[in-house]
User: Fold FMN dependent NADH:quinone oxidoreductase from Jannaschia rubra.
Amino acid sequence: MTRILRIDSSAQAEGSITRTMLDRIEARVGQADLRRDLGEDALPQIDRCWVAASRAPEAERTADHRAALALSDALIAEIEAADLLLIGVPIYNFGVPGALKIWVDLICRPGVTFRYDVAGPEGLLRGKSAILAVASGGTEVGSEADFATAYMRHVLAFVGITDTTVVATDRHMARGDDAPREARMQIAALAA
Assistant:
């Protein structure tokens, strides 16, 4: 049985295109076992204590270090427990929402989700796949102005998740009903 983690990052609760897309994706591939709503439950940005804690050898971490990393540990555990990640990626000002960037900062941990060796970085969260539900009002997904989609693909690959599918509703303000219609066709093509 595939365990699914759903991550919403839209600041909108009602009328969010990425939330609607993720609902449709879930109807196609299966209901999420765990949900994380970054638009509702704000995550704290990393700070000096977090950076110091993440760089300290585990045996040398203080109680403050462990407390600083507790949320990061929980977020990483959610990913480790999942086989499939469903991530809502609204494009805000050509990039990802701040809430999603904070999530990325908290899950990219040296020695935990990636490591470096002489060949370069190696992702440690292998054997998982992801579906990105990308929506934009005016930015064409995959264009030079789309810094969100390539960024998310890169981050996921960096931590070891290289099997990533993008479902896009792009330029919906200019394209009207054509954008969601194309996304529904992409979702229908997903393996159940």
Q: What stands out?
A: The longest strand covers residues 84-90. The longest helix spans residues 63-81. The chain has one domain: 4-188.
